[in-house]
Amino acid sequence: MTLTSALRLHNSGHIEQTDACVLDPEVNVLIGSGESAEVYRMAGGSVVKLFRDGFSSDLMKREYDAADLAAQMGLRVARPLGWQTLQGRTGIIFEDLPSRDMHSMLRLRPLTLIRGIQRLADYQARMHRVEAGLPLHFQRTLLEHRIETADVPDAWRKAALARLAALPDGDRLCHGDLHPGNAIETDEGLAVIDWLNACTGHPAADAARTELLLRYSGHGPLVRRAAIFRIPRNTAAWLYTRFYTRASGVSAADIAAWRLPVAVAWLQPRSSANVPLLHAAIERWL
C-alpha cells in the first residue's frame, strides 16, 4: 500500500484530515462489510473500518471513544489505534484480533449455546460496571430520537415516549447493539466489536436491547413461518436474561420495563427485526 496520509483526532473532538492513502488489493483484504462500513485487514497487525461516503463523523467518533473507554477499563475489545483516510473515505484503525465471531460458532456448534450465551451476559455485566458520561451520547436522547422516527402508529409512539419518561437515567457504558454477531472469540477470551451505537445509559435498557435482538432479529423464511424454528432463539433470549440478572444484580422486572421503548425505537424503516412478531409483542406490552 502506498501511504501518503493519516488522520488525526484533536482534543476538540474534530477529525482533521492530514493526508490520504490508497487501497492495494494485494495487501488490503476485505474481511467484513455492512450497511455503514467495510473492514479491511492492513499490514502490521491492524484493520481499518472504512465508513461509507456521507456517514456521520459524529457517529464515527462515538465508536472510537466508546471502544477506547472500554479498552482503558480492561474490557477485551479491538483497541482503536488512530484514524486514516483511504480513497477519500474516513476510517478507524483497530488492532487486528485473530478471531471467529460467536454467531458462527454457535451455528456450527449448537451444543455450546448455553456457555456462549452465559459468557456474553457476563461480559455485558462487566461492561455495565464502567461509568461512562461525556463524550458519549446519552441513551435517553438516542431512544427519544429513534422513537420519534420509528415506523409505528402514533399511539405506540406516544406510549413508548411516556414509558421512557417514567424510567430512570443511567451513567454506565452501554453497547447499544450487543448480540453474538458483535462478539468474537479470541485467544484471550471473548471480545466485543462494533461500538457504533454505544452510549451512556441504564444497564437494564441495554440488556433489554440484547434480549430483543436475540429473540427477534435476523429471522429467515423458515423462522418467520414456523414457530418450531424459533425455539433456539427464544431459548437463547431466556437463558441470556437469567445469566445477565445473576451476573449484574439487575432484575428481570427492570429489563421488562424497558422493552416497550427499546422495541419501538428499533422499528426504523428497513429494520432487521422480525416485524410481525415484534409488533405482536409490542401489543402485549402496551
TrEMBL record:
Aminoglycoside phosphotransferase domain sequence ranges: 31-210
Gene3D superfamilies: 3.90.1200.10
Name of this protein: Aminoglycoside phosphotransferase family protein
Coiled-coil parts of chain: none
Keywords carried by this UniProt record: Transferase
Domain of life: Bacteria
GO MF annotation terms: transferase activity
SUPFAM superfamilies per the UniProt record, alphabetical: Protein kinase-like (PK-like)
